[in-house]
Structures are given as structure tokens and as C-alpha cells.
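To close the chapter, one final illustration. This time we ask the reader to focus less on the individual chains and more on the assembly as a whole: which components sit near each other, and how the overall shape emerges from the parts.
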Amino acid sequence: MKALTYISIVLFTTISSFSSAQVTFEAKVSKQKLGVNERLRVDFEMNKDGDNFNPPSFESFTVVGGPSQSISNSWINGVKSFSKTYSYFLAPKKRGNFTIGQATIEIDGETFKTLPVTVTVTAAVDKPKDPNDPDYIVNQNIHLVAEVSKTNPYLNEAITVVYKLFVSENTGVSNWRELDIPRYNDFWSQNIDIKGIKIQNGTYKGEDYRYVVLRKTVLYPQKSGLLEIEPLTLDITVDVPTNRRDIFGGRLMQSVHRTVAAGKRTINVKPLPEAGKPINFSGAVGDFDFNVTTSKTTLRATEALEAKVQVSGNGNLKLFKLPVLTLPSALEVYEPEHNEKISVSLRGMSGQSSDAYTIVPSYQGKYPIPSITFSYFSLKEKRYKTLSSGELVVDVTEGPVNNNSQAVSSTKQNILSTGSQFASFKTKTNFLNTKRTTFFNSLSFWMLLLVPFLAIPVAVILRRKQEMRRGDTVGNRIRTGNKLARKYLREAKKTLGSKESFYNALERALHNYLKSKLNIETSDFSKEKIQELLQTKSAKDAAISQFIELLTNCEMARYAPFSNVEMEQDYNKASNVISLIDRQIK
Amino acid sequence: MKQILVIVVLLFSVLINAQNKDAFLEANDFYNNGEYQEAIARYEAILNTQTHSPELYFNLANSYYKLNQIAASIYFYERALQLSPDDIDILNNYSFAQNMTIDAIEELPEIGFTRVLKTLVNTFTVDSWAKLSVCCVILFVILFLSYYFSFSTSKKRASFVLSFITLILAIVFLSFAFQKHAINKKNNPAIVFAQESDVKSDPNLKSETAFQLHEGTKVQVLETYNDSWTKIKIANGKNGWINSKDIRLLNDF
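The assembled structure is written out below.
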């Protein structure tokens, strides 16, 4: 028991010392700014009773009321709180900035001072505000504010507008109704649903307020320049305290309908920089990842394949088009299926947007899916970034071969229908020079083309000549004789040395010569006849005798020996004689 | 002196040919082992010695195909087809490579008589038409002479009619040769090498983009401007200017 009293004494002393340390003495003004025809209330408030209260001198004001004292004691959860207030009602004398000086008081033997308060007195207000007028209370105590996260965003950068209704501590709002829902022209907008209204504490212009968040909207500006956000207008039911009191002394509240509007906000939207803007830029702003994937890379013809073009990340995902996949013309491609998994929060859109292409190859072969690029404006780095998907190759292993390739002319297409495999390399070759010589238009070409025509007149002329010769039989005989003479003479020359054949040939040559020249038959080859004939043909005697001599030599040779030298002599003689007679006879 | 020079040149060319054969076989080994890049280097080295063959182009194109280089593979298949237009393997693999291209261009159909004439003219090369016309001329001369020299009326009549026909054929073939020559002169195809290229309506960067072409598409070159722009025509008849760096000419040996 004794211990308990000690503890209680210790506690009591600490509390009392604690409370004595927490003496507050402050000055409060009802408003910092007032018209010259308005009134100001100043309260000096302390939490412990004191003596010798000394108000400041209100030089620039006239005291219209006060000082009035009020004391309140309250016990809450066994804790006593005390406050004593001295109130003055002041009327300003002129316009300007005035300072209400310090008031002093002695509490427990110590002197406390308030801080000086500065008040601005402006020109006269049209209608002096009656602090009990509900309009005035609403204006003073209820504020609808549109908070914009960023006032100079980039085009397509997410900004948020949060509408908050601030209600001061001493008024109450029992209901509200949205009169005019703002339409956000030139913005892409999305409301974020608010589940249940939560009353929070906050400050508005330095004063304590309770507030509720009425509406959150994410906006993506779609136009650069100055854009306006339309105000939100609410019809609210405010409970305003009246001067009347109920029988218990509590103030009666009055319900007043008021229309409040959040101010118009202007946003300056910066255009995206032109410098370094990629050609394929489609308006994506944010922070993205880009990839192209295929469901499989090897498949058989007529099997389906899905290629997915996907952009994921944060940014205006719903507001740009995905890059289009360009595929080889030989593939059958269906319209892409668009898919979005996007959540919208105060930070903007995040999630992924994708296009799924269904591809059915009908022929075997390799099909490249060319690399495509996606460009966006990075808000973090304030520059454009380009992402590229790698090149993919789809290998179709089985299936028919595409046999209507367009570059092969129509006449050759049907050749291809048999082959179904990519042919391997060729092992043998014959190299040609790359410098081609063309036959067409070359000299040899024109020669070969035109020379044959010359053959026609030549042949015709030859034919004519032949016919003419065939016409005269004598001439013919002469020619054949002559030809034979020459032939045998040549033979004789060849056989120079062997006596028999040489003289045989020589004799035949001479006979044939005579046949052609003298037109005689082989039957009458007597020397006399020859001589006579040659003479009639006016050949010289010397030549004739030589000729005869040669003939006798030929006969002699059959029985007598002849040397090689003689043979040669005879040959020379024969050719001489023949040429001689040729010249002499007519 | 001249003869010695000729012999030296001949020997040299034979030597190079032998070297190329070896290089070809070596490249084929690389190809077979899947080292396509190495194979390509060898094949291209052969090309640099001013020699070529359809098989060389074919193997080179195959290597590029294996490396998924569409434009180069199409380019060399086209080359191979220029030298050997009816090779089944080349046509087959070419269609594989064409599957990889992106542009689908509907070919402008040619109608009526011009189509018939064109397919007829295109059946043989210029040289073949030229040789055919030479053969016909020779045949004509022989037949004409046989008409001239033969005695029996029936023979004379037959050979005269035949010679007349061959003469007409010779003229027709000759005109085909000229026609084909003209077509060849006009035919200046190129392959788009850039992955994506804008075809402009005027030869400058500011002008409007008429259409886009992708890697591996075959175009016809019509004219060039300042060497940096080339006017091209695609199979559906559209034309425009493309950056000369984006394409590679096929006839450029």
C-alpha cells in the first residue's frame, strides 16, 4: 500500500512537472487577410491559468469588442485539459500590413509572450463577410481542389488529376452530387475507381482540413500546347452552424446546398523533340520492352505457327500501334489478333500489348521473319530509343515445294513439280570465261550467212562452162589428151631411174600429147605420119626431129641399156619439145 | 613471237583452269562440312579469275541460302539460270530461295500476239537463232543448187519448194535473232540487296515514296541518274527511283 502511494506521488510529480513544461500561450487571428471594412478576431489562448494578462497595443485597429474571457475545462479519459482565451474584436483603421504585437502573461511566476502576427488589410470588400453567413462559411471552409501531378508533361506522358474536397474541422458535408463531369478534350483519359470514401487529414494552404478524394483520373495529352482541364462541379449539402441553440445549448446546424467547382487548370504540353525522331516512331512514350517470338521454329507444311509481336512496360500502351510483321510472301498469314493486358494506375498504364499472327506455311523451305524495330520516347532518358527484334528463321521441313515461283517464266514452271528437296551442291563443272564472245553480229556470222549465197552464181557459171565444154567433142579430146600427157610426164619424172617404167610413161606421155595436139588415134602411130602431121601444123623441123628421136629412144629402151643420166636428159628433152611444139603449132 | 605469246597465254589459262578446279573441289568440301562462309570465299575467289559456270553459281547460291542471305542467294541463282536456264536443280532451289523473299509482286500478264511472239523468241538464245539462220541459209543454197542441177521435173519442183521454205525460215530466224538481241539489250535485271528500300517517285530523298521493296526482289533497271539513283521497274509494271547502292546488277560481270 505504501509502495503504491509512493508510485502515485512520483507519477503525479512527473506529470505535473511535464504539464508545467508544456505551457502554451499563443495568438490566433480569424483571418490573415481582410478588407478594410471587415472585422478581425484575435484570440490569446493559454492552457494554464495565469495572472497579469497584458494585451498588445492594437495601434492600427480599433477595438470594437472585448476583451472577453472564456475558460474551458474538460476531462477526457481522465486527462484534464484546460484552456483560457482572451478575445478581442478589431476593426482595421486603414489598408496595409499590420503586426499585432506580443501579449504577455505570468504563469507560475514566469512570463510568457505570444508571437507577433502579421495581418494584411486590403481594400474594402463589396460585402462585408458575416462570419455566420452560410455562403461565407462554405467559401471559407470547403474547397474543391484538382491536383495535377505535372503541369508541363510531354505529349503522351501520363499525368494524373486528383480531385480532393477539403472540409474544415468545424463544418460538415452530408452529401454531394457531381453536376458536371469534366470531359477531357485532347486527352486520353481513364478514371480510376475509388472504392469507399476515406476521410483523411491534410492541410490546405497551411491550415488543417479533412479531405476526401473524389475522383482520380489518368490523362495522356494527345496534343501539344496549352490544354485546359475542365473544372469539376459539385453540388454539396453543407451543415452550417447557426446562432440558434437547442435546449441543451448545442448549436443548431443548418443544411445549405452549395455549388463548388475546382478551378480550371491549364497544362502546357511539350511536344516530343524532333531531333533524332526515328522514322518508324509511332507515338509510344514510356519505358518498354519489345520482342517477337514464334511458337515453334521447325514445323511441317500446313501446320500452324503463331508469331507474337509484344510490347510490355509502362507508358501509353493503348495509344500506339504495334509494328507490323513483314513476312515472306510465300507464307499464308492471317489477320493478327490483338491482345492487351493493361492495368491503369496513378502511375499510368502498365502491362503488355501484343499482336498474334497465325501463319500457315504451305510449302517447305526456310522462311525468314525479318527483324522489325520498335521505337519509343524514353521519359527517363529524354530521348528516343529503338528496340529491334532479332531475325528469326522458320524451317518448314516437310511439304510440297512451291512450284509457281514468279520469276521463272510460265513455260518452265511445270519442270519443277517433281523435285521436293533442296538440291545439294554440284560436284562437277566446266569453267567458262566470263567475257562472252557472241556469235551473233560477229564477222564470222555475217560471212557464214552471206557467203553461201555467192555459191549460187559461182555454181551457175561453172555449170555454164561445163555445158559449153560438153558441147565441143574435139576440144574435149584435146583437153583429155593434154591432161593425160601431163599426167604421164609426171609419172615419168617419178620413175626416173627405173628404165622400163620411165620409158613406158614417157612414151605414153608423148602419145597422149600427140593425140591431143594432132588429133590422131592411137592406131596410126607411125613416125612418118607423125612427121607429116606435125609439118602440116607448121612445127619446126628441129622440134619434129627431136620428137621423133625421143619416140625412137622410147622404143630402143626396151632392148638397150640406158643410164640414169640419159634418162634425165630424155625427160628434159621431152618437156622441152612439148613446150616447143606447143608454141609452134597452130 | 606472236605464236609464243599465244602459247604462253593458252598455257596460263589452262593452269588457272586447273587451279580453279581444285578450288572448286575444296569449296565443295567446305560446303559439305557445313562451313558455308569458307565455301563462299573459295567460290568467290574462282569468280575473281574471270571464270564462271552455272554449277559454280549454283553452289555459291546454295551456300548463301544456307546462311539465310536471301538477296545474295537469289542473285547467284539468277546468274546460274542465265547460263543454264533449264537446269532442274537450279530452278528447284531457286524456288526455295524465292520462298524467303518478302515482296509478292503480281506479274503483269502479256496478252495475245506479243506473248506468243515473246515466248517463241525466248525459246533460244541469240546465238542459237543466229546459228539456225546460218544453217537455213546453207540448206537453202544446197536445195537451190539441187533444183538448178537436177533434171527430173518432180525433183526440181520438190527442191524448189523446199529451198523457198528454208529461205523464209532463214529470214524468220534472223529476225528472231535480232528480236532476241533487242530483248537482251533491254533486259537489265538487278536484285535488291538492301533489307528494305524505299522507291521514290523522283531521284532525290525528299520526294514521295512510291512503294517499298525488300531484300531479294528482282527488278528491271531502266536508267540511272548521277550514278546514285537508278530507275527501276518491277514485274507489275510500277516504276520508280531507287538508291543505286540498294541493288546489284545481274548483267554486270
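Chain B touches chain A through 74 residues (CB under 8 Å). The domain at 2-99 of chain B is CATH 1.25.40.10 (Serine Threonine Protein Phosphatase 5, Tetratricopeptide repeat). With these observations in hand, you are ready for the problems at the end of the chapter.
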